[in-house]
Amino acid sequence: MNPIDPKALFRLSVLGPMVSREQLARGELQPLIRELAQREYAIPGTQRRHIGEKTIEAWYYAWRREGIAGLVPKARLDRGQSRISAPIQEAVLAAKRDNPRRSVRQIVRLLEAAGTVASASLSRSAVHRLLQQSGLSRLAGSASLPEEKRSFAAEFAGSVWYGDVMHGPRVSVKGQRRKTYLVSLIDDASRLVAHSAFCLGETALDVEGVLKQALLRRGVPIKLVVDNGAAYRANTLQGICARLGIHLIFCRPYAPEGKGKLERWHRTLRDQFLSELDERHIADLDDLNARLWAWLEQIYHRAAHAGLGGLTPLARYQRDLPRIRSLGAKAAGLDALFHHRIHRLVRKDGTVSYLGERFEVPYELSGKTVRLVVDPHTERVVGVEDEAGHSLGVATALDAMANIRRVRRKPEPAAAPGERTGPNLVEMAHAQYHGVKVNGVNDHGAKKGN
């Protein structure tokens, strides 16, 4: 299984609010594109924070044609060069400098109206690249109305999940007090917690572990809304969501109002669970999670919720069970979707290392760089792949004692050389050095009989 291109995953995350919709109403596409273009993004490989409307539109139609494959960037052969003639370039730059608020479309129309260029002869993408190269591609600040914010709720359970992390209490781990982090996934329509667990970190691996249990327990959501933290931006998490058809949507930075229901859940947990927790009964992380899960199922999911018209989260969720997307046939291969792939150089003895342990792989791979397929949750190596994602065999834990009795494979003996009939440099050197006569002449050049 090949990893998905990181830039394609980023582009899919930008398109989340559009591609997660079953159908866009007439006239709805362009306002959505304009809204997405106004947001700030952590764009891979650049310090820029904004994406142009035309770029987002092109990504959207590429996704509709080819899916995730259409979002993989394609290298341009004319990168860094403009095909616009020098006089037209000057006219484009002058039009932009004269009014920095002019868009590419406006500049093209202006030049066409002025007769500088023929109608439909000037490519907007070429103009955009020219403005980029000249540092003039960004619009100057424009006046706008205050951003409108409205409360909303998903119509059905399973439509939207929210994910976030909250700081938790300290627990004893191997004799030391360690801080915990609560990773939660909550359903928007029902307020049901798909899964939640205290972890010793807030990494992508912790988030993936909670997501895997949520999928097994509560089905597959249509959208997953998360913040912009590094854990949620990880390629592994984005790849999992892409393969399961989950639209991963990132909240705008510094806009916590986008996850109000999750913030309310965190407050409920502090007020009703953490405040009642008796730490004398908490020996380790497992004890803490055991009490969290019991409280969720016995109290939180069964308590009437004011935001649900008096229904309990469990009852509201069960009302939409026929609409919940199940894993179906993907359940059997769910573990494989959560596997990670890491590069390793195979040693001369046919072993690789992972988390301080050594594993044996097919000996023919010695000296080559391979991809280990690992299950990070169980800390075991599943197999070995090449760069194309083809299996190269299995990896087994090294048993050095068993290798004492193991029969080594030896190379086949070389075939016996055939009879030589041509000249031989060694024999010629021997004849010259020892004065052996060759063709009637000794090494001093004297002829036979002299």
Automatic annotation (TrEMBL):
| Limits of the Integrase catalytic domain | 142-321
Gene Ontology MF: a single term: nucleic acid binding
What's this protein's name?
Answer: Integrase
Which PANTHER family does this one have? Answer: TRANSPOSASE, TRANSPOSASE RV3428C-RELATED
Question: What are the BP-aspect GO terms?
Answer: DNA integration
Pfam hit, one: rve
